[in-house]
Prior knowledge:
Elements: E1 5-11, H1 15-26, E2 31-34, E3 50-53, H2 64-81, E4 86-88, E5 91-95, H3 100-112, E6 117-120, H4 121-127, E7 138-142, E8 146-149, H5 150-163, E9 167-169, E10 174-180, E11 183-188, E12 192-200, H6 206-209, E13 218-228, H7 232-235, E14 242-247, E15 250-254, E16 263-267, E17 272-274, H8 285-298, E18 305-316, E19 323-326, E20 333-337, H9 347-360
Parallel strand pairs: 1-2, 1-12, 2-9, 5-14, 12-20
Antiparallel strand pairs: 3-8, 4-8, 5-7, 6-7, 10-11, 11-12, 13-16, 13-17, 13-18, 14-15, 15-16, 19-20
Helix pairs in contact: 1-5, 1-9, 2-5, 2-9
Amino acid sequence: MRGASYDVAIVGLGIMGSAAAWHLSRRGYRVLGLDAYHRGHDRGSSHGRTRIIRQAYYESPDYVPLVRRSYDLWHALEQESGKALLTVTGGIYLGQPEAELVAGALASARQHGIPHEELDATQIRQRFPAFRIPDDFVGLYEPGAGLLDAEACLAALLDIAAARGAELRHGEPVRRWRVDGDGVVLETDRERYRADRLVLAAGSWIGQLLADLRLPLEIWRILHVHFEPERDDLFVAGRYPFALWEIPEGIYSAFPALPGQGVKFGRHDTGEVCTPETARREVRPEEVESLRAMLNRFLPGAGGRVLWTLTCLYTMTPDHHFVIDRHPRYPHVVHASACSGHGFKFATVVGEILADLATEGTTPHRIEFLSAARFWRDEASEGSRP
Length: 386
């Protein structure tokens, strides 16, 4: 057993675990962070250059208070790190009026008073001439939405946590953990560690670490392609917002062209089912061409030369909501994962929630709708629960 003992151990140093380390170290706790891969690796869900941040949340109005707090915390991280992390570009949600994407975003915007504009197809084309959309489309434009610099966000969280004393170990996978009295023991190939509390934020590996809970998770391989647009002027941030659109074929996202990055484009609502170990990292030419055709259908000229491709993992729940909770038998073990492909923007507030749950046992944030208990409520008897 390693001589040092820690107040809180964190398994997984992607964006959620790193945010938890940031909050806990700010509060003065002795923190150990362990990750299976090297810093900034591309095996999980936190790599890549950009992520969307938005408040008109079509997935549920319940997320809006959380993302508002997350905005505040991203700005706090910017001030603490001295780095620009969030760029406001505006965002637009497109589809027929009854589409879940449009109707859900509008419901959240109205319920929470989020600044927005409702546009018809003609107004969309006039405001944003890059778009070629059907006449029956409408759009909800959110001027305060934008993009996060994903790599810089992760680096800032890790750097500040380490500077405040957190011991962060990369390339050291946790093979097993167990409760030991009022604490936990973690075993890696190098050491055994002891901590008073445990935070599990291992992304697509969470099901393996919480096998006893039998969480109903599915892992998707997701592909994005960075295309160099044929016309730079139409797609630059400031003239073109990020866009999400819903059509019968699926839900797609197209980012504005940033310097050296081109237009990032991908499909959001489905992916190739896999495990973290079997996820296919190579990209087939027909996959790229399928995305290029869809991009150029709505944004003619955006899908030019391929700059690079990017695969990542979505850890999906049946209802596509997050899982943030305490272990039902071990209240000093908390977990956040299975963010269903839309969690990055929430990382700063999720880190705060994890720090609250690990050290206080509760949080002022409303997260009941994200509890793992929702998966067990339909069980026939208490004895069938984990």
